[in-house]
Design a protein that fits this description.
The radius of gyration is 23 Å and the shape is globular. By secondary structure, it is an alpha/beta fold. It has two domains: about 250 residues, Metal-dependent hydrolases (TIM Barrel, Alpha-Beta Barrel); about 40 residues. Helices cover about 45% and strands about 10% of the residues. Strand 6, helix 7 and strand 7 form a beta-alpha-beta unit.
Amino acid sequence: MKEFVHLHLHSQYSLLDGAIKIEDLVRKVAGMGMPAVALTDHGGMIGTVEFYEKANREGIKPIIGAEVYVTPGSRHDRSTSQGEERSHHLILLAESDEGYRNLIRLVSLAHVEGFYYRPRVDKEILRRFSRGIIATSACLQGEIPVLLAQEGKKRAAEAVEEYKEIFPDGRFFLEIQDNGLTAQNRANPEIIALARRTETPLVATNDCHYLERKDARVHDVLLCLQTGKVIGAADRMRFETDQFYVKGPEEFERAFGHVAPDALKNTVAIAERCHVKLDLGQNKIPEFQVPEGMTSDQYLKKLATDGLLRRFQEMRTRSGKIGTQAEENYRKRLKYEL
């Protein structure tokens, strides 16, 4: 049996998009004889600990990752409208403990500093926190496939060199996929040719969104919930095929073994490079300095109360008043939360 490792996969924690339960996932890849599997949920790492523990229990190496949104400009820019915001997808995999910490930083900053319709990073923080991370060019929504389709080979090659500069030492891979999409089938030969011209390693993935082929219908329902559409709507978002499932090594061998066997071998090579050990069960809550003469509880109460008063003022500025009963309800709720 040919070896293969899935490195682009969305679990139930890619909310209203991924339909893969982690426990079912690790059982399936173990049953297919795969040595490892990656988790790359959209814009976050919510399932990381559950994934790490359950994969290890099944004897599967967990590869911790995320699919991030890379904005073309600054993560601080919020001048575009929702329809104009065009962030590109990028897969990031933690190669080392340092890479895991950097991945956490990137995902956190995407939410805290870059959130605008979705959590976004930019190339400035990718450069700052790229150490210990392997990157792949992602799906058709990745920057390089978009450039190939819209601006041509030269511009795409320039972007490849930029990503190789951000992720040096062989830590950037061009991604080809076997998902049956018409646009993907057109893009794959161009991506392979681009990889050969730029001497960039290839990797094969499937952008898995559900476990079994029959689960495509369930995933379609999730998309309807996400977009607020009904199944019968003609203009709604939908996946063109039912191929976004966790395929076996033989299926990838049939798809790419004759045109890019290195893309299959590199899935295992990447998995062998990734070594992350989570130190679970240890209390790592940071210690905060509080003003002299106050306990931590007293300082928390002061900050929370000051914040509530500030919110009251904001509400009065917007609407001119806040009801006595509403104010009392907020105060009671704060007391309960504290």
